Amino acid sequence: MRRFCPTLTLPFFLLTLCCVPALAQSADPQIAKLQQQVTLAQTSADNGWMLVSAALVLMMTGPGLALFYGGLVRRKNVLGTMMQSFAMMAIVTVIWALFSYSLAFSAGNPFIGGLHNAFLRGVSLTPDPDYSAIIPLQTYMIYQLMFAIITPALITGAFAERMKFSAMALFLTLWSICVYSPMAHMVWGKGGLLNASLGGRFPTLDFAGGTVVHITSGVSALVCALYLGKRIGYPREAMMPHRRGANSFVLIEADSP
User: Least enclosed by CB within 10 Å: which of 98, 166, 195, 199?
Assistant: First the structure.
């Protein structure tokens, strides 16, 4: 049986006490570096997925919405109807970068944002904690741009074949500035009147863009259709859609006496 010898154990104990702080100090930089790598990997993955999601939303406008609306009109108006969706991709992108993004997501009053981010000033790779702690602000701006594009493009189906291209471009440009930007700020922007997470006075939960995208475009499309009235010749003349297979119900209605 071995005997306990305090004279030999004490030096080892003291040596251990001296070495533990040194080992801890040497491990701290390694742990910090490991945590930084984990955070960077998470940020890269989240950023990559948001960019993929933005591309998928963009495809909903072109070619998705363009082909869908193009199949609902007569053959002679297919190209013009499709170009309305593609035109929104170009026009809204320009005005979004100039001032629309700032009006929607920068700090302002409860109804509309300011011009703090005009010309994308301050929109950098650094995340905005008010919107996301990980996603870069540029990625967030691009993602929101996709919804700003498809919302006015949805309205084009209400006046298909009944509005000139120049009138359409002017109307939807003004609509994006005067309707979409204030509504996006009120529901999604910091300090917005209806924002449920950033101090809105009347908190509103917006599921999948139902308020900003679908309600605004739907109501505006209805008002626009009522204002323009019926197509010339409707319902006396049969107006066959270009894509007959997908719209057989329109053919049945048109062929009926």
Answer: 166
